[in-house]
Amino acid sequence: MLGLGILKGLSVTLQHFVETYLSDLKRFPHRYAPQGRAKRLHPTERGIFTLQYPEERLEMFPRFRGALMQLTNPETGIPKCTGCGICARSCPVGVIEVVRASEKKGGKFVPESYTWNLASCLFCGLCVESCPFGALYHTPEYELSTYGRQKGELIYDLDRLLAWGQKYAPDGVPPVEKEK
Amino acid sequence: MSREIYERLVEALPEASFEYLEEKDPAISVKTDDLFEVARYLKEDQGFDYLSAVTGVDYPDRFEVVYHLYSMKKGTRPLTLKVSASKEEPEVPSVTPIWPGANFQEREVYDLMGIRFVGHPDLKRILLWEGYKGHPLRKDFPLEGYQAIGQEEPS
Amino acid sequence: MPFLNDLFVNLSSWIHGFLAHFLPLWAADLVMMLFTIACLIAFAVTTIIFINWLERKVIGRIQDRYGPNRVGPLGILQCVADMIKMLTKEDITPAQADRLIFNLAPVMVVVPTFMVLAVIPFGRGMVAADLNVGFLYIMAVSSLTTIAILLAGWGSRNKYSLLGGVRVVAQMMSYEIPMVLSALGAIMLTGSLSMVSIVAGQSRVPFILLQPLGFLIYLTSAVAEVNRAPFDLPEAESEIIAGYHTEYSGIKYAMFLLAEYVNAFIVSAIAATLFLGGWQGPLLPSYIWFFLKAYAIYFVLMWLRGTLPRLRIDQLMGLAWRFLVPLALVNLLVMGLVITLTQRKGLFSLVLVSLVANGLIVAAVVIIYAFAIWRRRQVKVTT
Amino acid sequence: MIPLSWYLTVAAILFSLGLYGALARRNAIAILMGIELMLNAVNINLVAFWRYITPQEFIGQVFAIFVITVAAAEAAIGLALILAIYRHRQTINVEEIDLMKW
Amino acid sequence: MTLLQIAFLIISAVTILAALGVVVGRNILRNALALILAFLGVAALYLLLEATFLAAVQVLIYVGAIAVLILFAIMLTERLMKQERATNEQWWVVLVASALLAAILIFLVGAVEWQVTPTEIGGDPIANLGRALLTTYVLPFEVASLLLLMALVGAIIIAREREEA
Amino acid sequence: MQRVETGLRTETITVNMGPQHPSTHGVFRMIVTLDGETIVDLEPVMGYLHRCQEKIGERNTYLQNIPYTDRLDYICSMSNNMAYVMAVEKLAQIEVPERAEYIRIIMVELTRIVNHAVAIGALLNDLGCFFTPMLYALEERERILDLFEMASGSRMMCNYMRFGGVRYDLPPGFMPELKSVVAALPAFIDEFERLLTENEIVLARCQNVGVLPPDMAIAYSCTGPLLRASGVNYDIRKVDSYSIYDRFDFDVVTETNCDVYDRYLVRIGEMRQSVRILEQALEQIPEGEVSVKLPRVFKPPEGDVYHRIESPKGELGFYLVSDGGTNPYRYKIRSPTFINLTVLPELCKGHKVADVVAILGSIDIVLGEVDR
To answer: Is the distance from CB of C53 to CB of C79 less than 8 angstroms?
Structure first.
């Protein structure tokens, strides 16, 4: 009535305006979170909410569905994948192509080629869910954009997936399995 | 509950013929010609004032249009009404005059399934563009190949 | 301190004296005039860059974010980057557009903006031209903007542009009236239309203390006059895309942007001059006081923009004609009475009586409003 | 000092141009514009006479103001009429507006 | 030739050319733009005559209000923008008559010996003007305001759409 | 340009609002016939985002359809999941473990809060707020999306629910986080209300705009907040209680003025009710299994089934016909906003252009769901 509601609204925005400076003061003289490891503002805290992306990054949750990786058995050094193709069949859009090698390696089937087409992936995780050998997992990798879409950029081959497996699960156990 | 309605329907509309389908969701099957009368009866006398969904299904031998009805006042579970249409010339009376909310849904079924709703005020494609050939939700719609945009169909 | 206080005035007289050494007097005057104009234009361009940055910062803070912070320290160069981008963009003229009008409009919109700057006293003695019809000149010149915007909307041959143009005209013409009427209070108190005299008239007490109501009316209609939120209907992006400048791009679009921001600054500056005592103030140099006051009012504009949704066109017109114009008229009448009654009775009684009068007007408005609500309730109950 | 006759000459030319516009054009709005030009010419005369002949009395300026007032009123009414006619007849060509009643 | 005279010549040339643009040409919108220019030129002439208040009023009323009204009317009747002929059949008669009128007027202006009193304007011209308006000429002033009010009401009534019968 | 030739008195102009228009929330087009600024006629045109979801649904296996439901209404993927999963469970008669039911309800109610906050923010954007309410809403949404990401691995395309339960149990650290978020929600809603509810401009723009009388709302099959703002006390969670909603104590929010403002109020009220449900669910949630074991090749029995839930936008139903194979024979989505749009032309006639965007914003459409 008579502008009181407008004044109320203005008081809310002014409060936010002032509180951002207070939160700045709190972290003064640092502008960014230490080592770029930002945390989301706690629900009871007020102030600047945004993260300054390239300088600060959120840590991904273990379940985060990022790019795919192929695990290697740390004891034998052979990929856990057997090239059975269940992941390819479970994929709703068909971004995975697997060819099983004609010869066994170390007494077990191995894939000859394995390609994952990032360009049309839904990141639904059904492939990971369906893998009976625990060979396929998600990485926390999310900065996947590239300038091209030929092989090696948007289309990932086995080597690249295995390399990511080595990086994120060197002991053969992905972060998701460790969370408990 | 659907059983009750079915019995009342049989009583109230003796000329029409119904069939009671005992399935997971019990349904009442109606002949195409009787649909409009049945719909009117259901709305005006049985209080089914709310039409939730209109669905077309392409069975191998027939098209079927499924209506899900509720009564707002009584807060009942849905009543399912089914109507069959012939494969060659699928035509079903429109229920838009009874439930205006059927307008877009019937257009959608017409668009994707190719079932004509007789008596619909403005039956034209809704999701696909004017001049699109074919009805994609039919089972015989080709799953491969392209159709160039802008191919005008003489209407 | 006196050195700082009269820095710009001394500078200009020094340059003038320097020029007079080897130029005839009239030539020196002419050069000085051109120099002043160049200064004003440079000032306008810097102002838009600074104000744009400031506005984005403030609104960013209101929305719990930093605002521009990538280009340059604190993002201060963001607007320079934007400017460069805008100036290097392709200049498009729609095929259907009326070329002459389409290209003329952006120029026509910028020129009055620069012209208005000439009569604003930025500090003690810092005014390009002290016209004896100062305020009237401002109103007259800024009415040219209306035509320019109408032409922009018309010349684009775009229905959204046309709608935006029509809205601008309706809005700017309606809000000119309460704006002038409320400013007349200050003019009556001084007895002069000259901006310099108005500032001089406030040496003892700023006019906001004498007519807070007039100030509020002025501020409201000024916000509407420069198409700022919550009255930014001519460029309401959720309704008519970008209104009259939908079809403009590149440098022509930049001109509209420039005019818009500088106009917003100008109305803040005029409000500061008319009601807050202009450059008057203790301790600090006069021009700093002026900018402090002007930016304080500009902050209110930004704050409003960060908070409020916009009105609908009929509500906007209703606000002007049903509320602001009658209120401004009543305020003018009461102020006239107050001034006549308290003539030669001293400053204190003038302040007291005018505050009481303002309070009475507000009380009357509240009572009328409450009565209207009560009536509406009665009607509702009976039906 | 600019001679008074210069102003009067300019005013005379403006007036004649306005007269031509008012009498020769078919578009009602164009006719209105011609009339505005004529009024402006008159105003120049009024102000020039004030400045050169009676600078102490403000009669010339006062009447110029009245002329402007009348011009504003005339424009408002004229354009309202034009719009009303346009709405009924779909034309603002004065040659086609020849009925007393429509 | 003083600076003022040069300024006068430039301004009046622009004004007259603009006025010419108002009456010739087919595109009525361009005519209206020329009209605005002519109004501005007249305002500049007022400035030369030291009638600052009138100059401001000229811009405010003629450019800010009347020209906008005219532009608006043109836009609302936009379909007639491209008519084949801008003038009526008697245009050459009018042309001759106007030219004749202009010739006579200019001749008269040159023939008459004007009684010029080249004095300065005393005091504050705006204050004096205000005083004149509200004392000596208060009756015409009131009449003019009444006229404006009537014009306002009349314009609204005429332009308002009739209720459909 | 098309003119109404009957009266010759008024000149109407036809304006295309959309498909690329700032306030149509996506690629939606309205052919608006204007008389001045007043709407004479309005025709919605949609299909610019049509992706043949239903046809794809017939190609996919039942499981593969779950990620596709995420992409229907991409703001509320959890509730889309739930509607589809429950329809399949009804078809195959699968019992769901109790803990899974609670997890589902927590997720769906969080989704409701997200959706309503964003809907109000978007509505205010359409009304011309310079993003401030929208960004405040997004702040709260970020916190909730963090929870989703923690549990399911993705912020928006959750793909979390499975037939007979959910994909995984809640991760460690989820419950304390959820508790602090839920505890802070009332304060957020209060602040939102302080910012907007009494704001005169919001009142002026929203009250008595787009009035939808209750009988008309029913006739046009409106659902969700749109229906309840028209004073119809109809909430599927109460009327046709599914899952375990009968265990919670909450009210159905209705308003009586049927206008845009009441839709706003209903959304605010539902957010508060969702907080109530969440608080109760947090207390009651048991330990235990979260999913049942299903055969690797899942083939539900023959038959057809329709299941509906109260999604944040209204009644979301899935009609599935199974021929006993691995794929649905027919997969039909009854999307709430598509059907709510039927009433748009009726709501808009006689209002101003500016009201169209307000009305459209108050219907709260998501084009992914309208066009499917």
So the answer is: yes
